[in-house]
Design a protein that fits this description.
249 residues; alpha+beta; 7 helices; elongated
Length: 249
């Protein structure tokens, strides 16, 4: 999982499944949550954006949708047939054919997929969905304002390799693809997964007695990143080794 920063636009973007971009609205490190909003919906210039996809969270992202603080709005676009049930609201916006929304957690009962051309479920924050100024006019553009407030995902801080690094006072290093490449420890040494396992020092990653070197593309890339950011590197030396020759006979 990698957050892309756009200095010119002063925005941070998280890319989920399907190369869909979500703008980062906030990160709560104490409660391990991140608030996101669909970047495409934020770009609309009116209060009636057209939802075009569901939110799909890839398993490798270590993010989870939680019902705490979140709800959903179901959208039923270009529908035919009878009138919807009372708890479903018609969308009264320009550019929409017979379309509806349902502000509740999950899709309401009905043959929506058979009678509507498009059906989507968008997560939203409950605190904004319940506000009277939005809730009383959801079908007239209020839903757009709620969508722009985003939704919240949580993460498990113990998931992934970074947890062990941070628990031993290290700083996690990543490459440009968001992959973990090493743990930068307080003593200036980069190690494998945490600062307590000194036998896996990535700068040497060798046995001083045998001089067996192992290198990887990620290690080289990480070293380049450290050099680019002027991070001081601590030199390590091996004890002198006597070199001799013995007659095999």
């Amino acid at each position: 999982m990698a957050i892309l920063c756009d200095a010119a636009a002063t925005t941070a973007t998280l890319r989920l499944a399907g190369d869909t971009n979500y703008t980062v609205l906030g990160i709560d490190y104490d409660n391990h949550t991140i608030t996101l909003a669909d970047a495409e919906l934020l770009a609309y210039n009116n209060d009636c954006p057209r939802v075009r996809r569901n939110v799909t969270i890839p398993a490798k992202a270590w993010l989870n949708f939680t019902a705490t603080g979140n709800s959903t709005i179901s959208f039923f676009l270009d529908c035919t047939g009878n009138s919807p049930p009372p708890d479903v609201i018609q969308i009264n916006c320009t550019g929409f054919a017979q379309s509806f929304l349902a502000p509740q957690l999950g899709v309401p009962v009905g043959d929506w997929y058979g009678s509507c051309a498009e059906v989507y479920v968008a997560p939203v924050l409950t605190e904004w969905l319940d506000r009277p100024e939005y809730g009383t006019r959801l079908g007239s553009g209020g839903y757009g304002k709620v969508l722009r407030r985003g939704f919240r995902l949580s993460w498990d801080p113990s998931a992934g390799l970074c947890y062990g690094c941070e628990m031993t006072n290290g700083k996690c290093g990543y490459d440009q693809f968001g992959a973990f490449v090493g743990c930068l420890c307080p003593d200036g040494v980069v190690r494998g997964t945490d600062c307590g396992k000194k036998e896996v020092d990535l700068f040497t990653n060798i046995s001083c007695k045998t001089y067996v070197f192992t290198f990887s593309f990620r290690l080289v890339r990480f070293l380049m990143i450290l050099v680019e950011h002027n991070v001081p590197l601590r030199r390590r030396s091996c004890p002198p080794v006597a070199v001799g020759w013995r007659d095999p006979h």
